[in-house]
Amino acid sequence: MQEIVGECLARRLLEWGVDTIFGLPGDGINGLMEGFRRHQERLRFVLVHHEEAAAFMATGYAKATGRLGVCAATSGPGAIHLLNGLYDAKLDHVPVLAITGMQETSVLGSNYQQEVHTTHLYQDVAAYNLMVTNPQQMPGVLDIAIRNALTKRTVAHLTFPNDLQVAAVTQDPYRHVSPGEPPKSSPVVSLPAVPAAQPDLQRAAEVLNAGSKVAMLVGIGARGARAEVLAVAEALGSPIVKTLPGKMVVPDDHPLTTGGLGLLGTRPSEELMEECDTLLMVGTSYPYAKYLPSPGQARVVQIDVDPSLMGMRLPVDAAVTADARLALQQLLPLLQTRTDRSFLGKYQRERDTWLADMARLRDPERHPIAPQYLMGCVDEAAADDAILTCDSGTIATWSARHWTIRGGREYYLSGNLATMAPGLPYAIAIQHAHPGRQVIAFVGDGGFAMLMAEFLTAVRHELPIKVIINNNNSYGQILWEQIILGYPEYAVRHRQPEADFGAWARACGAFGAKVTDPKALPDAIRQALAHPGPALVDCDVNPNEPPMPGKVHYEQAKHFTEAFLRGQPKKMATLASVARDKINELRP
Ligand code: FAD
Prior knowledge:
Keywords: Pyruvate, Thiamine pyrophosphate. Residues 391-539 form the Thiamine pyrophosphate enzyme TPP-binding domain. The protein is an alpha/beta fold. Helix 3 packs across helix 15, helix 9 runs parallel beside helix 11 (324-331) and helix 13 (371-381) crosses helix 14. Helix 4 links the parallel strand 3 (69-73) and strand 4 (96-102). Strands 2-1-3-4-6-5 form a 6-stranded parallel beta sheet, with helices on both faces. It has a 6-stranded parallel beta sheet with strand order 9-8-7-10-11-12, sandwiched between helices. 53% of the residues are buried. Helix content is 39%, strand content 15%. Bound molecules: flavin-adenine dinucleotide (FAD). Flavin-adenine dinucleotide binds at residues 92-93, 219-221, 243-246, 260-265, 283-287, 303-306, 309, 323-324, 392, 396, 413-416, 418.
């Protein structure tokens, strides 16, 4: 039997080390599905309910494994649905290949059903973006697409017209698009590690050695460099501040770190940024410049593998283009060990106070349940190598502050796209990649409801993921943003009845529980985590709990007070929650 294009695609993906495709078939990709079917023993196809979830899964898979994520969707609507998840990959710099279908070449341009020109549609999201029109282009253009995705750490897209998918693959006599050799190393990772140039390192060391109050800001790009980050911080007497995606770079319980920075960050991190005279940024494109040292306040050293991202937020005195781990290894012998530890010591003491404040918020006595207590219960019961995925919303605040990175724990969310709904699909993809690990999705009721059919995907694939729903029956983050901006809340709370997602989980054939009483919570979490299959705990939390910034600024306090006086519908409940938290700081 002659190899068709769909089959050639599947074979070559296998040669690149791809073993999983997330997707949903349709009449626009029947030829590709036949190709995947012919290689089904080695190439797993994870059938989803919505293509957006397939793209999130490919992104989550790439984030957690460092390997290429692959998703597939049919022509027109299927390809349109992929987009949000693909932007998540692009903005968080992970390699994803999107494969879509296109109408037959004979009808293109005739306004045919589902004729959506996806190469136009994907122009902004994909670094490599091609409609394959001749079987002789395969597998050469697939190799080029994959190399683009891996080396640029972004999205590549190939779309295949229907007739082409089933055409026989033949050799182009002129070899214009070389089929080349199959890749040598498999599975292929995104980038070869690039060492730093000596003159750049010398300059960086000069700046760092001259500083007296040195701070480090580490991002997800420093993920493989835990030991090196700690060694450099130790030598410089520098506190380590972490971006939210960079939370897993060093353990939260390590004495050298003061935690995160920004609205979801900690007070000591924010204050030390205001005081430092030197900043070492490693593997980060941290977006919120207002939390970084003011212009002229500090000299800056930046280590990043991508020179185009250098100096994006702050003027840089020494730029080192290199892999974080290699650069820090090379830098360490050039650093003078700082004996004055007063800057570090001051913020270590502040950090202890902050952690004690946070512990008080995990109050088991509160009714309705405090979301901090919910996250705290999960944190306490989860394994030392558990993986937590999270959605955008107030859950990001609770997980930033109350999910403790220790041991081999990991943490993933949609960082730069900050989209709702990836938590559940990420968990499914990561459980596929790491079958033996405990994978927990900590999501809000809003994000969960968007793609909740994917819980069935987990059940059908017998994936033992755990879903914990922080159910405030509202769009909690938006509620607080409206208040902080000075508007009375509007259209952010759902009407009754509230959903019972625990009952939905049981209807799907999984473990499901609904918790409203704080006393029942620890047990429900323990049961869900111990359950051998998929499990879900839907926990009603206090909808009026404010996700407070680490440090409250005057404008925020002013707007809050004004909006409050203008007539918040839930005045008393809101006030009670805030009072418990930090009402003193809110007085302008
Ligand atoms: P990225 O932006 O992905 O940057 C990583 C950098 O590392 C890139 O420049 C890349 O080139 C580089 N890199 C990659 N690999 C290597 C390597 N091997 N060696 C060297 N460099 C490498 N974030 C916060 O920090 N604080 C907040 O308060 C906050 N609030 C948020 C609230 C919500 C609801 C959500 C959804 C997100 C929030 N975020 C917050 C996330 C935020 O939007 C950004 O995504 C995040 O700050 C960027 O983190 P990063 O710099 O680590 O990652």
